[in-house]
Amino acid sequence: MRRCIYINDSDLTLDLYCDNRISNRKYTLLNFLPKNLWEQFSRFMNKYFLLIACLQLWPLITPVNPASTWGPLIFIFAVSATKEAWDDYNRYLSDKQANEKEVWVVKQGTRTRVQAQNIRVGNIVWLRENDEVPCDLVLIGTSDPQGVCFVETAALDGETDLKTRVIPSACAGITSELLHRIKGVIECPYPDKDIRRFDANIRLFPPFIENDLCPLTINNTLLQSCYLRNTEWACGVAVYTGNETKLGMSRGIPEPKLTAVDAMIDKLTGAIFLFQLVVVIVLGIAGNVWKDTEARKKWYVQYPNESPWYEFVVIPLRFELLCSIMIPISIKVSLDLVKSLYAKFIDWDEEMYDPDSGTHAHATNTGISEDLGQVEYILTDKTGTLTENKMIFRRCCINGVYYGNETGDALKDVELLRAVGCNCPEVIKFLTIMAVCNTVVPLKSKNGEVCYKAQSQDEEALVLAAGRLHMVLVDKTGNMLQVKFNALTLQYEILDTLEFTSDRKRMSVVVKDCQSGKIILLLKGADEAILPCACSGQQIRTFVEAVEQYSQLGLRTLCLAWRELTQDEYHEWSLLFKEASGTLVDREWKIAEVCQRLERDLEILGITAIEDRLQDGVPETIDILRRAGINFWMLTGDKQNTAIQIALSCNFISPEPKGQLLLIHGKTEEEVSRSLERVLLTMRITTSEPKDVAFVVDGWALEMTLKHHREAFTQLALLSRTAICCRVTPSQKAQLVELLKRCDYRTLAIGDGGNDVRMIQMADIGVGISGREGQQAARAADYSIGKFRFLKRLILVHGRYSYNRTAFLSQYSFYKSLLVCFIQIFFSFISGVSGTSLFNSVSLMAYNVFYTSIPVLMNVLDKDLHEKTVMQHAQILYYCQAGRLLNPSTFAGWFGRSLFHALVVFIVTIHVYSDERSEMEELSMVALSGCIWLQAFVVTLETNSFTLLQHLAIWGNLVAFYIINFLVSTIPWAGMYTVMFRICGQPAYWVTMMLLVIVGMAPVLALKYFRYTYRSSTINILQQAERLRAPYLPLGNMESQSRTTEKEVIPMSITLPKSRNSVYEPLLSDSPSAIRRASGVSASFDVFNASPSRLSSTYSRNYKSN
Amino acid sequence: MNSNGATSSVSSGPNEASRRNSKRPKYSKFTQQELPACKPLLTPGWVITAFTLIGVVFVPIGVASLLGSRDVVEIVYRYESECIPQSFSDKKLEFIQSSETNKTCTRTLTVPKHMKAPVFVYYQLDNFYQNHRRYVKNRSDKQLRDKKSERTTALCTPEATLNGSPIVPCGLIAWSLFNDTYQFSRNDNGRLLSVNKTNISWKSDRDNKFGKDVYPKNFQSGRLIGGAKLDPNKSLSEQEDLIVWMRTAALPTFRKLYGRIEADLLANEKITVKIENNYNTYSFGGKKKLVLSTTGWLGGKNDFLGIAYLLVGGLCFFMALLFMIVYLAKPRPLGDPSYLSWNRNPSGL
């Protein structure tokens, strides 16, 4: 399970591993055609069309020219193949560029310039400042005497801050000349894609230092695609090359997400396919019977008496081909087209542009916009998502004394300043931890100012605050750390850094005070991770109270602790730590275990409280989305009280007496399970009461429940509209998403940091906030937005419109192909069930791909309701969530409509064009133009708002139909030569068209009008309201108006609403914001331990059923 | 709700603004989905007006079509069984297939109303499937058009070749050419009414689809004789009966133009028609009719359009009235928020 790499020894490692040629290409010149075709044909629809196209090659059965299917099919395939080829060509070009870039590599003891693709594992690669790292390297030397270098890892994880990388201790002090001749062996695991871990060892051969095993971590590596910054040069040994690098391994195409709408369309396609089979079988049998009984009597047909064995399948197959257009070939292309336009609309949207960070919304995944409109659960991260993630040190509690409580800012607290001034030992220790116990890198700029590079916002806030309190972190070079306190310069040697992991929830450093020579453990972390390790004598009650108090205010707390170590103790532990750091398997866990040994008997110094402000518009956004029937779950790594406070302040949960929190907690498994049962019981009894009930669960209890009571927890999840999960790990977040997904709910996960990536990838829709924690989440997500508040626009406007538009487009596509297909079927009844096509090949092809696609594509501009109306009446989203606009029954409506229209066209046509006028070409053109006229009016009737473009598409298409057919009618060898001129010259034709349109559309219009007026759906009512009254009130007015009217409305709306004075009054009986405002924001909040009294939720969850 | 606060607040210094603007999405009404749009609403007034208007337009058109159709005078005479001699009434097939029998039959028709010239003479076939799949494609348009491609007979089987040389015109359609003939004479003076058989086909067909230099070849000389024979000395473009026949009908009942009588026929005038009853419709029970008809503004005698228009117009009036009554009896304010489901029923939809 590991590879041994001999440094700089070309004989031993040359051919074992691949070279550094990067290849992201999917295809080569030779395999492009077969591979691409194979991929395209792995889709069901494509297989179906290919089968149809192949059947059409058999002239005996084809009713039309094979070109009518092959043309569009080849076109569609060519389009997607060209796109693939172009993408692949671009990948090839960028690969080529990367592969041919020249780098310095040590060959036979001298530096030579070679192309990047010729780097072999074990080679020593030299990099200059601002060079891109060509492959994964283990750092062995840098220009910095301490062996430090800085890299920018943006391409790898999206984080823009500089990261520090150090050479392994074994390589310390080797001069650059010697580095050319260095020999040794690196033992490392097989390539994997984890960019946060590299558990390996290095052993240098004599004469370089003693034959000692030295552990390597990710901090000793330079990974491919990073950039070397602020360092003159660095060199390293290639360990993974080519496609085996960390980046290469983590590349990969994420599984395509299928939207609910797509799934529904697939289902409907399947149903149509079955219907088609039934039609084919019935007509096939009827055709064979007719042939045997009637056709043999018709001497002019000359049916041969003996027929080939396959005779009985000929007629069914003809009908299969005739009916093949039931499944429209254009639907896939049209859908892809409009979907990419939806995505573009999101990218273009000005209202989702964040001027603070200069980012606009971006849809990485162009295929799932409809799903946005069908979201039922939103799982949101807290920090950086709901909050701004701008950490500011606000308060602290040192040794039981609270600072900053009066002013709200500890830095301005006179008491604290005085305590600092008089060198109070506790305060000094406290400040030391703030300044030292971190991984912040101080960078000195030219004018002497110090700025900090930090990976954690909290740490930066602490260091800055310490600086303001005169404890300035000045310099960090290698292991030496300089802190300036007033005029004093203190030096510390960092012996070990025990890193932060989300499991440990704390980080610590072991430093040696260079002044006194003492070895000290400095610790900071979550209170529940640190307080239990306090030394036995210490009173921790004050700290618990402080934590409680701060988290009530929604502040993030950290507990700081300190312990002095004896030399012996440290050395003993140090050996264990080295051993643990050197393991290749389960290193993280082992280190954690070793660290545990040191982190005990702590002297708790105090609590820091850091403020993280809510982002703009978060409460409104949550409020609106909740009204839209979306359930919110907050998943956060923060502690319970902070989470609840944030939840309260952003409308997430309602304060008492309106809302109620049910707590699932417990230390042991039984306690957790009992607590869960109680909560579940409470939830069940009280689902009918108008109350906001939320449950709160912490990471530990969650783990228990997920492990042992999955079923019960699932039930709870379904009952509860709101949940707060605190102290959860990234994998638990993902588990929760999966749990909801398994219950068939559409989930949206939104987050901003690396710890949300798994949840984002797991959810149906992942939304990333391109925030301060880097771009990691935004990169992994399907959509990235700048601020949380844009989510409401993303869902209510873009998601909803996309859903509506796709629902119409897909059903319409089926409608128009069924229309033609039904006419063909009816025609077969009067053509001896022999499978004659009424329409000619050109018309059929043009009908499907051209005449009927363009008007409907313009439907992407259709808006049923104004955006502002949607925002006011967010409940309208129920329609999309419940799939009201695209489901089997709406589809049945379209099916019925196409049947009706086909009957109208067919009956009118054959009656008007009977007797002496029943010429085939003429009759077929009359029927076809009837279809075109009808479809133009159907699109018109179904369009809610007409822009100029839509008018142009609908009527221009109608005109284009005539122009094209007139043109075709001038071609002497075409079947329909002069036909179009003849029929258009007859008044009967135009009279027929008018009759067709009115007979076809009047009932539809009457029905629509009746439903619209007397059985109006919510959408209709809002449309009427929006269009009859003033266009819409300006935003400001509306807001204030709603506020003033709210109070009167609350009691009234529960009985029958009598007020019809204004359309824009808040129409909600149970708007959480209304009550919240009425009862005051500052209402106190009690956490109930699931008392099964009078709780519950207004929202019955069965809206799905109607 | 303050989402447009975000867009309006970019004015912090010209430099900064322009730098940021470069990253901003380009504003246009299209990209913001804010193209001016008209949003029609199905108001009662609109709908009632529309239906009334349809009625107003449709009823006159219906009346006009019906009158036009009524003005057309039509004589339909079904002869396929009447032209069988009594002795053959049980063995019609034998009669028609035999070459010895005398197939001429003479009948007298009465003109019901004055028929203005030109009077169109049609033959009508019932239950004849010219649109049958085996039949409708059994032709070679290339061969008909071009002398050089007389060998393109691929689609014409089984009437493609005779002893290896191509049949012109090939295929079942041509082979089954209708071959009854009619001769008309006025009863009172016994004078022949000449039937003009030129220009009965489409001009475009004569000029482009049927070659002037293509002559019938091997036609109807095989074992099975289908329908009419063609004069081998006349080019296909002059064989108008064939050209008319080759325009296949889409319905199993169809009329095809036989010729025109270019003289007025007076009311109650008796006309003698001498029918040469050659065409076999007996094997499949098809009817044969002789049709004499004038023409109106909508074509031949066809009441369908007129009736349909009157019916639809009437129904639209009725609907308009109905909507009006419902509207007056049960007025319902449009866009009344109290109808919103979440206002009516607090527990969701």
From TrEMBL, chain B:
Database matches in InterPro entries: CDC50/LEM3_fam (IPR005045)
Compartments in which it is found: Membrane
Family under the similarity heading: Belongs to the CDC50/LEM3 family.
Superkingdom of the source species: Eukaryota
Protein name (database record): ALA-interacting subunit
Positions of the UniProt region annotated as Disordered: 1-29
Keyword terms, alphabetized: Membrane, Transmembrane, Transmembrane helix
Gene Ontology CC: endoplasmic reticulum; Golgi apparatus; plasma membrane
Organism: Amborella trichopoda
Lineage: Eukaryota, Viridiplantae, Streptophyta, Embryophyta, Tracheophyta
Skewed-composition ranges (Polar residues): 1-15
PANTHER family reported in the protein's UniProt record: CDC50, ISOFORM A, CELL CYCLE CONTROL PROTEIN 50
Membrane-spanning intervals of the chain: 46-68, 307-329
Topology with respect to the bilayer: Multi-pass membrane protein
